[in-house]
Amino acid sequence: MSLFIKDRDEVVAEARNVLVQPGPNRVSFPRGDYRLERGEHCFTVEVDIERSRKPVDLAREFCANKTPQGWSLSSSRVGPFFVEDLEMLPDPARPGQDVRFKVRLRNDGRPLRADMRIQDRDETVVQLSDVPLSGGYGEYQFPPTRYQFQRSDHCFVVIVDVERTPNRIDAAREFCAKLLDGPFK
What we know:
- With 185 residues, this protein is mainly beta.
- The protein folds into two domains: 2-72, no CATH class; 81-178, Immunoglobulin-like, CATH 2.60.40.10.
- It is built from no helices and 15 strands.
- The chain has strands at residues 2-7, 10-15, 40-49, 52-55, 62-67, 70-72, 81-89, 100-107, 112-120, 123-133, 136-141, 153-162, 165-168, 170-171, 175-178.
- The strands form three sheets. Strands 1, 2, 3, 4, 5 and 6 form a six-stranded antiparallel sheet that branches.
- A hairpin with a 2-residue loop joins strand 1 and strand 2.
- The mean pLDDT is 81.
């Protein structure tokens, strides 16, 4: 039997005279001159038994995606992300005082690198660049900022930019600072 790996209608690699045993099998394909050129390449496998080609059922789709680090067959699922907690230090803060933010974030997708920012409506409060977001939980400290609280109510949202695509993050609750008798809380 022969096996073929195809990208659309193009044969990417082939292995001829393969003996397939019952159970799991590992087949090595010879190197070829196929080049990845588009943004995504999805591969299928065909088997040729006695000159009759048939597609092989696959447990999942195998797609190579172009990433900043190179091509990858890893899952391309980004997120979802969840803000578990957002802290402001000091709390309460006085106008003009340096404040720091700490975000506890859950990444239910693949590990990746991204830019992260905290926004108050359409204004960026503070940001981090090229942050590694591992799978699961992580805490992220933002640099101090002298954010000028100018209204009596400030609700913050966390944005994660993955490959220049902003993703607003779901939060367990709303994170708002309110004007008390002077300082914000």
